[in-house]
């Protein structure tokens, strides 16, 4: 088997297993609240703890990239996932559980950063960023029926983590076959991760990642509430609609690499935010269920490739020695948006759900403006 192809497949598998692990929490929030008898205010801190841990670890891991091998860093990250699973499995109190989920955040932050860096160091034809992100979406889709099966059979939710202990242990063994090395491992000079932010392209597009992540997560968090309040859609129907959104979103990413190769990353980024804004206007101005579904479908399909398009463009337009740093910065801004921006938007959504989507218009407008700027600059260079 081709070495680069083998490395790519192992990276995809790791991201899929990490997605199964990280997406297990959300469906169990209510179950955890009832199991441990905690208040709404206390249970509400659980997701932010995971996000915060992931953000902190992504910064730490950016530094670790120059101190340890990529393979070792990846395996340590997944080892954290096993430790977290054991803690969650045996926890008898909510505060022990909280420690377990904090460690799970560390695992996700470290695992995602090292996996992303490894993919970024492969030859361009193997940098399938869209399919890479689709693997994460697929894990998020598949974990839902697994969690439902656990709950419907009155099995303790903690036991779900036995599955993760097994799958992650298997992946750690498989990951020993990875052959990817950064410049530091080859004896070259290591570049400071954050020095790359002096590059305007990296800085401006990392900010675009920050805004995009806030928009994506807030869409999934608030669409259900919005549909209930403005369209009268029942709570029973909302999960099916959200599942359809994720399926469309993930399908877009499955076929996205070929599409981006043909259209071009900047051209796509100059069109997709406009389509997303159109989708927002459809759901904000509509008054029938069909209009709501159309608007959500437009948003899902139009934004599905924004992240991999930005990610791929940045990675493929920095010098080779700066690729690990660029990859790390993208992951850090991703986690920064997930940690802070979604909760700022959540505050606005608590006032009025439609404000969530109105704010997103400004986020997509930023992505559009920056993309158009670099598209015009690239076109001028080609003409000259």
Automatic annotation (TrEMBL):
PROSITE patterns named in the record: MFS
Residue intervals passing through the bilayer: 43-64, 76-95, 101-122, 129-146, 158-180, 201-218, 268-284, 290-310, 322-348, 354-376
Segments forming domain Major facilitator superfamily (MFS) profile: 7-383
Pfam families in UniProt: MFS_1 (PF07690)
A cellular-component GO term for this protein: plasma membrane
Entry keyword Transport: yes
UniProt entry keywords in alphabetical sequence: Membrane, Transmembrane, Transmembrane helix, Transport
Gene3D superfamilies recorded: MFS general substrate transporter like domains (1.20.1250.20)
Localization in the cell: Cell membrane
GO MF annotations, alphabetized: transmembrane transporter activity
Domain of life (superkingdom): Bacteria
Family per similarity comment: Belongs to the major facilitator superfamily.
Protein name: Fucose permease
Lineage: Bacteria, Bacillati, Bacillota, Clostridia, Eubacteriales
